[in-house]
Amino acid sequence: MADEQKKSGFFSDLFAPVAGFGVTFSTMFRKVVTEEYPEEKRPTQPRFHGRHQLNRHPDGLEKCVGCELCAWACPADAILVEGADNDDREGGEGRFSPGERYGRVYQINYLRCIFCGLCIEACPTRALTMTNFYELADDNRADLIYTKDQLLAPLQPGMLRPPFPMAEGMEERDYYLGKVTEASDSQREVVSARTHADDAEVTS
Q1: CB 3.0–4.6 Å: which of 71, 113, 134, 149 could bond 79 by disulfide?
Q2: Arithmetic mean of pLDDT, 53-79
Q3: Which pTM value belongs to this model?
């Protein structure tokens, strides 16, 4: 019995220095699987937390009402929001959202953002969501502070560029109930008149 223990101890001591290379030797001749990024990009999961987006209503008005709850919820203090009142007066700045206010200034500092998603959980109007876009690297720190123009969702067919009044006969809650499906004729007339007036100022 003692002799068997001595033999096993001898062989274990003999191969101990090379035993740690077992995993290395077993994988040396396997085919290497390399992701050819950025030439070949793997699709992300549907609920991936990527770059933020400020959404619009079907007629083009912004969903953000400038409540600043997203900024308060952000643990990294990466969001800056400055709200302003919608101005429906004659000659005023106009209406940008169905609410009393809208987000006049909206910035996200991606040098601070940790992509936790707490901001989209805090948003009461579903104005802020996260896309699947993740390529945010840059060599300039200032370019990683995204402004409202960069975060706003692009205009889809049937949408108009604010400012313009709410759809006639509709209230703020009607927008969130899904009663507005596209821009109305009266809204198009307002935007068209404003465009013509701006063009006239430029030419003059």
Answers
A1: 71
A2: 97
A3: 0.78
